[in-house]
Amino acid sequence: MKKITVIILTITAFMFSCNQSSNNDVNEANKDLEETGNELKDAQENEMEAAKAKATADWNLFKKEADSSIANAEYELKMLDNKIDKAAKNDKQKLKAKKEKVKSDMEKLKEKLHQKNVEFENDMQNFNNNVSEKNESFKREFNNDMDELGKSLNDIFKDNVK
Length: 162
Known about the structure:
- The chain is an all-alpha fold.
- The protein has helices at 2-86, 89-125, 129-155.
């Protein structure tokens, strides 16, 4: 009977030590998992901040280029006044109407750029990858519209060449 009691106590002690060892291993694994999760979260936050900074830099560069293009177009419009004044009397009215149409189109583009800039600043509050995609789409569209505006400016006198 003593042998059985000793064997039972030995087995119980062994099981208890194994159980504690397993608990320690589980606790270590949980700590490692938590640390890895925190590192992943930090990496994701850093990646998001980097993407946000890149999107902001890209937008600011685009905005400066767009503002410069608009300023150049406005200058060209002002220069057209001299050419229109020198044009034949019967062409002046038609030229002025074309100029006003181009000027109206430019004002619409300026407003469109302003609205997109406000939208961009709002989007930066809740930044995600869609913001960059939307901006790229807008940039392509805006640049295309600016190209069309430039063509319209150049074409004002085209019909009047005799």
